[in-house]
Task: structure prediction
Amino acid sequence: MIAGMTATWARRSVVLAASAAVALTVMAGAAYAAPPIGNPDGSYPVPPEARAVDTSNPDMVIGNGTPQSCTSAAVVAGVAQGGIITFDCGPSPVTITMTQTAKVFNDTGPEIVIDGGGLVTLSGGGVRRILYMNTCDPAQHWTTSHCQNQDHPRLTVQNLTFVNGNSTGQLEEGGGGGAILVRGGRFRVVNSAFFNNRCDPTGPDLGGAALRVLSQHNGLPVYVVNSTFGGGAAYGNVCSNGGGLSSIGVSWTVINSLFTHNQAVGHGANPARGGSAGGGSGGAIYLDGNTFILRLLGTRIENNHANEGGGAIFFVSNDRSGTLHIEDSVLRHNPSDGFETPGYPGIFVLANGPPVVINSIITDQQDIEDVCPSGRVCDRVLFQDASGRFHRWDAVSAPHGETSFYFGDPGDVAFAGDWDCDGTDTPGLYRRSDGFVYLRNSNTQGVADIRFFFGNPGDLPLAGDFDDDGCDSVSIYRPAEQRFYMINELGSDDGGLGAADSSFLFGNPGDKPFIGDFDGDGVDTAGLHRESTGLVYFRNSLDTGAAHSQFIYGDPGDLIASGDWDGDGDDTVAVYRPSNQTLYLRLSNTQGPADVSIIAGHYVGMAAAR
Ligand SMILES: [Ca+2]
Ligand SMILES: [Ca+2]
Ligand SMILES: [Ca+2]
Ligand SMILES: [Ca+2]
Result:
């Protein structure tokens, strides 16, 4: 059930769209259940500089143990003083409605931490911004002559909830930042939530109902960690652009965070179309500027909406020097009414090359079908990257865990099989330069456990269980003859393999072979993928004859493999498309669009592996 995989093949344009079943989320009673803080599925490692600050020895405590003591005036005074600020408002959650925006003074700190202890909500009352820091605002005191690039103050907000902030009409620094506006210094958000914040509903480049950030020191990133923006149907943040985050020329590292139900409600985009007031892009995140990086790590972005471009993300690096990196994340059902980048539903991106996407789902669907129902044993995927590193997925889903290890040399042709008959597939390599096969019996780094040579230059390796004895062996397809040579045992000790157990003609010149148990009888047989038409065809017996089944699947340049992705006993095809880093799974050997598509990352080889 493995496929040799190199080469480019199959010309043909079957459109492969994810056609996963749409599962509508019913929000029964959700309006009364606060959304989770952070992405419950996020487990990306958080670097030390992005973690919550130790506030066990605060410089200032707001409140004296009662909710009544925690006032807007106390918050304003505390923030003005700076330092490490905590709250003592009693044991229950408290909401403090601000009657004035709390403002940082730039000559305090330089470390300023506002820690709500998970109990404090700051509300803008629907009429004002909640928190403001601006190194270039003379009223908050200049501390350097170059206010737009200084390393202080360093503001952290943690364990806080920000609700009903509204910066509408507050257009200093270009406006936006309904809950928080930061210009200059450094800024970090940890374990915090942003609900129902707003900024102006129109404006071409105005954004950030929750956060608007400018001029970070030396281009260092804003960290947003384990935080929620929206998170439920009644909690979304709304602005002309960027319901969650917005900035110009600022880098962001967003880890294990959740963005849902945020909206970009402007119309006319940027620059504003004639007759419009502009805006409407980046439902969750709106980033503009030149050189900047957005890293989304372990983050979920779903059910956000933009009237114009990028229902999830609008990312425009004007000089194309910026980078969008998406890893271990899920972006789904973020409709863009106006425009988005083909192949990246919910994203409009102009950057230095295409987005870097690793182990993530980006889809316009609400939900991805569970490929492997619980209780079944399913094949997974073993990818080989250009450096000779293998990536073994623990499930055919995204995100998923994976085991990575180096084996062999870059350029070796990779496959997978169960060489020691213990039920687990492990990698194999065929080195064209010397005709050697290298097999490893564990999915770990190390040298080959088994080495032997066989075949002629130009032969393609194939691995499978061709006699249903529970053990995989390595066979070959000789394209020059269109002949399969089947071998049911492995070589050893650097020796050569003897004569094939059987051979048969199958295929046309140029067709690329793969192996699978297409009828689920336990015997792996041969399939071929035709470059000229995209035709997939196979036989269920190891002999010459007409195909038992055929259909069209894939595009030129795709890698093909087949595996039992759904654990129902039969192997079906999958293609990996290097040009868009996407794995397209089909769950039946019939013509049709992909049942599941997963943006997987950059690889050069792919095999199914139990
Ligand atoms: Ca094994
Ligand atoms: Ca066998
Ligand atoms: Ca079979
Ligand atoms: Ca199957």
The chain has two domains: 107-363, 380-609.
